[in-house]
Amino acid sequence: MITKIGVLTSGGDAPGMNAAIRGVTRYAIEQGLSVTGIIRGYEGLLSHEIMPLDRRDVGGIIHRGGTMLRTARCLEFMEEKTQKEAAAYIRENDIDALVVIGGDGSMRGAQALSKQGIPTIVIPGTIDNDMDGTEYTIGFDTTVNTVLQCVNRIRDTAYSHDRVAVIEVMGRHAGFIALHAGLAAGAEAVLVPEHDVSLEDLCMHLNESHRMGKMSSIVIVAEGAMKGSDVYDYIKEHTYLEPNLTVLGYVQRGGSPTARDAIMASLFSEKAIDCLLSGTYNCVIGQIGETIAATPYTEAPRYHFPLDENMYRLVHQLGR
Ligand SMILES: Nc1ncnc2c1ncn2[C@@H]1O[C@H](COP(=O)(O)OP(=O)(O)OP(=O)(O)O)[C@@H](O)[C@H]1O
Ligand SMILES: O=P(O)(O)OC[C@H]1O[C@](O)(CO)[C@@H](O)[C@@H]1O
Ligand SMILES: [Mg+2]
Q: Which residues are involved in binding ADP (predicted)?
């Protein structure tokens, strides 16, 4: 029977992680469990940094970006020896199950711990929206809206100076941020890791739009597709157009969560605790269609939600 849970955040921080820490803590306490917070993700399990969490400890954080528990990318945790040490520490502290809030890498970490006999459950928290077992990850909506606001500002300059604004956004392995922000901002083109990038085609596309009377354009590049600076250089060398470059960087990851992210964080938290209480674990919580589901790690790849090809086509058709 589960009486005490641990909770940690891992990987890149994402807006809404704090709302999830609050949701997990308060809902678990409501159900009669006690809660331990682990500091700095899997690193905290190795450096033994933990703290008890009560209702008041998670007060005043629902609207804050980042994560009050801190987070880390812990490379040591890739080794089985380290995973065994972490599992032993969890047992020593009488933690019966662990809630991991993080992205796809963090989910692999949770799966590794479950192989060591620790019941785990994952709440998807990453701005990248690139996890199996869910159509939505906490933080994505906030980031897309942040990028949109930035692009709208950059557009003013691009328009006024007749320039091609090249904007690099995050997404090491996935183009969701670029695609969604691109469609919302009316970009001329988006470059994403899921599609081969031809800078020759891009320049033809931009030149053609220019001939049709379009004096300024927006090109959004996911960092995993190509470096924004390479796109800038190519346009400068191969066209008569005038590009400018903005690498958005970490402004995309901070900030207060949108209503959608704070709501999803709360709903995912409730589902995670309900699952643990009913003996369902080693699962990723996720939104699948209209439902909030719990999918075993081993089955999550069956629920892979790729980039929406219709949206990708539409960006390029509407952007000219
Ligand atoms: N195969 C694995 N086995 C064990 N642990 C892993 C594995 N992959 C990742 N992890 C752990 O999860 C941590 C976070 O992973 P990663 O850096 O990929 O971020 P993420 O959770 O995908 O979030 P984001 O992509 O939003 O930054 C890693 O630093 C590592 O501690
Ligand atoms: O510099 P860091 O913290 O490793 O984060 C960069 C990476 O994290 C992510 O933002 C996801 O949080 C990726 O898109 C990005 O490549
Ligand atoms: Mg990831």
A: 22-26, 155, 186-188, 214-216
